[in-house]
From TrEMBL:
<protein>
    <submittedName>
        <fullName>Peptide/nickel transport system substrate-binding protein</fullName>
    </submittedName>
</protein>
<feature type="domain" description="Methyltransferase">
    <location>
        <begin position="48"/>
        <end position="123"/>
    </location>
</feature>
<dbReference type="InterPro" id="IPR000914">
    <property type="entry name" value="SBP_5_dom"/>
</dbReference>
<dbReference type="InterPro" id="IPR029063">
    <property type="entry name" value="SAM-dependent_MTases_sf"/>
</dbReference>
<dbReference type="Pfam" id="PF00496">
    <property type="entry name" value="SBP_bac_5"/>
</dbReference>
<dbReference type="InterPro" id="IPR041698">
    <property type="entry name" value="Methyltransf_25"/>
</dbReference>
<dbReference type="InterPro" id="IPR039424">
    <property type="entry name" value="SBP_5"/>
</dbReference>
<dbReference type="Pfam" id="PF13649">
    <property type="entry name" value="Methyltransf_25"/>
</dbReference>
<feature type="domain" description="Solute-binding protein family 5">
    <location>
        <begin position="273"/>
        <end position="603"/>
    </location>
</feature>
């Protein structure tokens, strides 16, 4: 220690932030993730005070999780370092022994990384909570937010959420299942992360939650009719539409399948299963397919006819539009295709296509009435629910269609509620404002699984998790840079940190476990030395790139933070840029160079047609190669399954070597429901027929 003129002693570590970071690294942001986990599990509000923030890394993590963070420290060098390296929080100078933030109210106060060791006496320790008590709202009955243990020189974490959970200075009690939720945070690692001698302090206001007291979720019973189910999804803001051909988000897809039908849809095996199509049959050369429609009606009573089918496909294929299914319908010659009867269509193809049923099941290939265009004010479909109301970015209400061809739904109504924050969806579910919450974080799921408040449904390995590199612009127009990034990624660390272990590692290819997946390619491992060599070859030794991310999807901000630290070890500076949850997907389609990306399930053929062909409308990597397009057409035209698989493997080998998707994992898709909800299918990867399907769900 060295003296200062103001009487405060300077210390070797706390006034030398670079040395502190080197001595106490936390590349996985385990302490910050633990705090965010506690906030989410216990309904903590957005305003957080981080006392003793040090270098600002934990405060910045909370800021990236969309919390409004005030970060305080006594050390000016630490604060300067934090402002420069971890911008976002409001950094202020304050002393643990006594501080006053005036009328500002915080929802939670956190103190990590041994900061409480600067309280050397019980008197000093007592003054610490007295400083923030005026800034915290009154604690609800049953929630104790800040106990200080008499006679000890440390503080404990203690709060209640239906049951007491606490961490003590000694090793006798640790009810929080740290090993299961944070694989890299063992007992010793946790002590290091939150204070070597002290476990740190955490004050949470607003603990709450409720159980609907439903029956055993495993119970079967006879389906019951009636009631309104409210389902919370992340949405797309004021620009949302009910036009099914413009569906891009998962909320869009869920609403579309409630109102409309496709000719076919994907089952859990990702094979096409008939829907409005009763059957299909090809000719010997696979270039003409006869499709027979089943007896079905639109919500206005008109029958679904062959003319409606042709109108829908021609609208989707309009060259002036960029509808999602446009690339999937490309094999069809829609000018030559014709109605051969009221319920029969002859599709004439541009080339033999062995997997034509996948075209009928393509994402967004919905059937709408001929000449319909008023989708947002009065959409008419043939789905199990009919339109009642729609407020873009807020909610949509649909009512049971009693004459649906597959039987009337059990529910009277379904209401889709937009809640972009995962914490908002969870709290709405716990508070009884909704009965279905789409896409929960793994930490949230583990916290509530088996506790009796809500039910957790896991759709295993359902979502590809990736970083998307724009292959047509610097620096990723150089294949050596793309290959270097493949080698920078530590996939296991990404799965553990960003997904809390709820998933499997990826190998830079979509569709792990699906038909045609090239599982014979070697699993990529991190190789920083080779990555640095490739970057040097490409003249990119001091590379700076911006990584776009957003809280729009579970694990995105965590993955960005972890990859930034991994890239740093290869000499690459990654600046993480937070995007809007409302516009993120449209922003990254053509903007930026590197972004967080994900996808639900679909056949590998559909992934290629919608994302990797020159004319694909959702080609986020800008992978455009005419010879690759030709291979796709060759695969489509190959009748023999084994020969077709060989072509798809050839295509995947090329993507593995030089593609733009760094696929680091496959996540479980997690849904939360009220305990009285029945009929939610667990064997239903995201994007398949039974995912987000509400016509077979009922309320017990």
């Amino acid at each position: 220690m060295t003296p200062e003129s103001n009487g405060r002693a300077r210390t070797l570590l706390t006034d030398r932030p670079e040395l502190y970071e080197a001595r106490f690294p936390d590349p996985g942001r385990l302490a910050g993730r633990w705090v965010e986990d506690c906030l989410r599990r216990h309904g903590g509000g957005p305003r957080v005070l981080d006392m003793g923030c040090g270098t600002g890394r934990d405060a910045a993590h909370l800021h990236q999780a969309n919390r409004r963070v005030t970060a305080a420290d006594l050390s000016e060098p630490m604060l300067a370092y934090a402002r420069a390296r971890h911008p976002g929080p409001e950094y202020v100078r304050a002393d643990l022994h006594g501080f006053d933030f005036g009328p500002v109210v915080f929802d939670a106060v956190v103190c990590l990384d041994s900061a409480l060791l600067y309280c050397h006496t019980n008197e000093q320790l007592d003054r610490f909570p007295q400083g923030f008590r005026p800034a915290a709202p009154p604690t609800p009955t049953g929630c104790t937010s800040w106990p200080v243990s008499p006679g000890r020189d440390t503080a404990s974490l203690f709060f209640s959420h239906g049951q007491k959970e606490f961490l003590m200075h000694d090793d006798s009690v640790s009810p929080l299942p740290l090993d299961s939720r944070f694989r890299g945070l063992r007992r010793r690692g946790f002590l290091a992360a939150t204070g070597a001698a002290s476990l740190g302090a955490f004050s949470l206001a607003g603990c709450g939650g409720s159980s609907d007291g439903g029956d055993d979720p495993k119970a079967g019973g006879t389906p019951q009719r009636g009631g309104r189910l409210r389902a919370a999804f992340a949405g797309g803001g004021a620009g949302e539409t009910l036009d099914p051909h413009r569906a891009n988000l998962f909320a869009d897809a869920a609403r579309a399948k409630a109102l409309f039908d496709k000719l076919a849809d994907y089952g859990p095996d990702l094979a096409a299963h008939p829907r409005l199509a009763e059957r299909w049959e090809p000719n010997r050369t696979l270039d003409r397919w006869q499709v027979t429609l089943r007896e079905a009606t639109f919500h206005d009573g008109r029958p679904v006819t062959a003319e409606d089918v042709l109108h829908s496909y021609r609208r989707t294929a309009d060259p002036r539009e960029a509808f999602r299914a446009k690339a999937s319908l490309e094999p069809i010659d829609l000018e030559a295709s014709r109605a051969t009867g009221r319920r029969s269509v002859e599709f004439v193809l541009k080339r033999p296509t062995a997997e034509f049923p996948n075209v009928l099941a393509a994402f967004g290939a919905y059937i709408v009435p001929a000449h319909s265009d008023d989708f947002d004010r009065h959409p008419v479909g043939s789905g199990p629910f009919r339109f009642v109301s729609f407020a873009p970015g807020r909610s949509a209400v649909f009512r049971r269609y009693d004459d649906h061809w597959d039987g009337a739904p059990y529910l009277d109504e379904i209401e889709f509620v937009v809640a972009n924050e995962e914490s908002a969806r969870v709290n709405a579910l716990l508070g009884g404002q909704v009965e279905y919450a789409h896409e929960l974080n793994p930490t949230t799921a583990r916290a509530h699984e088996g506790k009796g408040q809500i039910d957790i449904v896991r759709l295993r390995n359902s979502a590809m998790q990736a970083f998307c590199m724009k292959t047509d612009r610097p620096p990723f127009d150089d294949v050596r840079v793309r290959r270097a990034f493949f080698l920078i990624a530590d996939r296991e660390e990404l799965v553990d940190a960003a997904l809390s272990g709820a998933g499997e590692t990826g190998n830079d290819l979509f569709g792990k476990g699906y038909e045609y997946y090239a599982d014979g390619l070697p699993q990529r491992e991190q190789d920083l030395e080779q990555a640095r060599f490739l970057l040097k070859q490409a003249g990119a030794e001091d590379l700076h790139v911006t990584l776009d991310t957003s809280a729009v999807a579970a694990g995105f901000t965590e993955a960005a933070s972890v990859f930034r630290d991994q890239a740093k070890r290869a000499g690459v500076t990654v600046d993480v840029r937070m995007g809007s949850k409302d516009s993120y997907w449209s922003d990254i389609l053509d903007g930026g160079t590197l972004s967080c990306y994900r996808s639900g399930a679909m056949p590998i053929e559909s992934h290629i047609s919608q994302r990797l062909l020159t004319d694909s409308t959702t080609n986020a990597t800008h992978w455009r190669h005419r010879d690759f397009d030709a291979l796709y057409r060759q695969a489509q035209s190959t009748r023999d399954t084994k020969d077709r698989a060989a072509v798809y493997e050839r295509m995947q080998r090329r993507l593995y070597a030089e593609g733009g998707f760094l696929v680091w994992g496959f996540a479980d898709w997690i849904i939360g429901t009220a305990r009285r909800v029945r009929g939610v299918e667990a064997n239903a990867p995201a994007n398949t027929l039974d995912w987000a399907r509400f016509d077979k769900v009922w309320l017990a």
